[in-house]
Amino acid sequence: MVASFRTTRGNVPYELLGEYKLHHTQEGQTEIKELVLISWDLIDDFFKAVLPDVRIGPTLPGVTIDIGDIVAPWNVPADTPRDGFPGTPVGRLQLIRSLPQKHRAKPNLWCVDAEVVEGVGAPDAQDGQLVFVQNDAHQTTGFARVLVTYRTLTYQVEVADSIANAATSSELCRYVTRNSQFAGKNLPIQGQQFKWWPFGVVDGSPLNETLSKTFASIQYSFTWHMVPAIPTAAYIMQSKVNSTLFDNIDGQRGARSPRGTHLYLSPELSKPYYTYAGTEVRDITYQFIFQNRQTRGPNNEVVNRGHNFVYVSGSTTVNGATVGADFFRLFRSRGLPQEAAPYLDYPTTVGTSPYDYAELHNLFRLDSTAI
After folding, report:
1. How far apart are CA 8 and CA 99, in angstroms?
2. CB 157 within 8 A of CB 100
3. Which residues, at least 6 apart from 294, have a Cβ–Cβ distance to it below 8 Å?
């Protein structure tokens, strides 16, 4: 036996027999397998202590969320449904997570698997238990050799329940893997006819072909791991854009995800699986398209233009002033005060914009109507 240790959670004792395998890839993923010796009576406690688990806690006191509709501060009747149900916001449930065991020497590695390799001892003739027979009068429970695997994870886990369940927070701060892929699209330039002007020609000939302008975007997939229920918002919020800063909980991503720049497409559900403790969970992958055509406003201020803006070439009149080629917000006129500034982005009532606005953080929160 090399050394004696106890698990961080549950304080279960075990003996380290040795490092069985160390593997490190060029991509930076590290994996360590260790062989440990555990009393047979403590096998169940050991597995529960080193492997992750999750459960649904009670509703957060005094906290409600709108799971499907927009944040609509202008001209909204008091009886307007805001959560997909007649008039009443729904309660928000807490998620209580048990962390996997962290490797004692490499804090970037977490326990992802534990396997009983063999029992150590002799079977008892009476009940088949694994025991050590010291003499005719005394028997002690045997041991088991267990292979424990520690591995780097693609997501953050070390975030307290109190932080992830806070009223202004969500599970975006933990158990979420982010992947991105570049995308782009060519949009025809509207409103003006372009001319071919060779050198020395005062007035060139009109071009008969439609010209286009390339706009870059990013396709994101956010995979939420080990989720014990499906948020109602996963289906209600499809084809909506973020009404607030999105993915900004860690204080680093919000600047690149202003209002209206993340378009939520659809969810993809994995097959259900079970934690060791028996909780049925699944992974949920959300697909988004991010685009932000950041430009300058009439007063040289930085303005973010998201999915509800269209590029207009040539000059355009806004409030009596001539504005050059730019992005302008698409909306159905309803006499709202923000319509006076079509170069700015505002949440509005349902049906006013091509893409309605929603609090996309609710995709990573469980509501009391979750499936």
Report:
1. 10
2. yes
3. 302, 303, 304, 305
What angle is formed at CA 77 by the lines to CA 74 and CA 81, rounded to 5 degrees?
A: 105
| 41 contact partners, CB below 8 Å, separation of at least 6 | 141
More confident residue, 191 or 270: 270
Q: Is 234 exposed, middle or buried (0-12, 13-18, 19+ CB in 10 A)?
A: buried
Q: What is the CA radius of gyration of the chain?
A: 29
The two structure tokens encoding residue 188: 């025809």
**End-to-end Cα separation, the chain, in angstroms:** 48
What span, in angstroms and rounded, lies between the C-alpha atoms of 110 and 152? 6
Q: Are 142 and 130 in contact (CB under 8 A)?
A: yes
Locus of tokens 């048990």: 98
User: In the structure encoding, which two tokens stand for residue 244, read together?
Assistant: 């607030």
Quote the CA–CA distance of 341 and 348 in Å, as a whole number.
13
Contact between residue 240 and residue 357 where contact means Cβ atoms under 8 Å apart: yes
Torsion angle of the four alpha carbons 59, 64, 67, 71, in this order, in degrees rounded to the nearest 10: -160
C-alpha pair distances (Å), 61 with each of 83, 231, 299: 18, 19, 44
CA 211/CA 197 separation, integer angstroms: 15
Q: Which two tokens stand for residue 121?
A: 């001892």
Q: Please tell me the distance from the alpha carbon of residue 152 to that of residue 324, in angstroms, as a whole number.
A: 51
> From CA 325, how far away is CA 213, in angstroms rounded?
12
Q: What is the pLDDT of residues 213-254, one digit of tens each?
A: 777 888 889 999 999 999 988 988 888 988 888 875 444 444
What phi and psi values does residue 44 have, to the nearest 5 degrees? -65, -45
- As a whole number of angstroms, the distance between CA 105 and CA 92 comes to 38
Eight-state DSSP code of residue 172:
G
- Model confidence over 31-60: pLDDT tens digits? 899 999 998 889 999 999 999 999 999 888
Cα torsion 63, 68, 70, 75: sign: negative
pTM of this structure: 0.81
Residue position matching structure tokens 């997570």:
97
**Is residue 164 within 8 Å of residue 224, measured between CB atoms?**
no
Of 18, 9, 14, 63, the C-alpha closest to 40 is 14
Tokens of 216: 């870059």
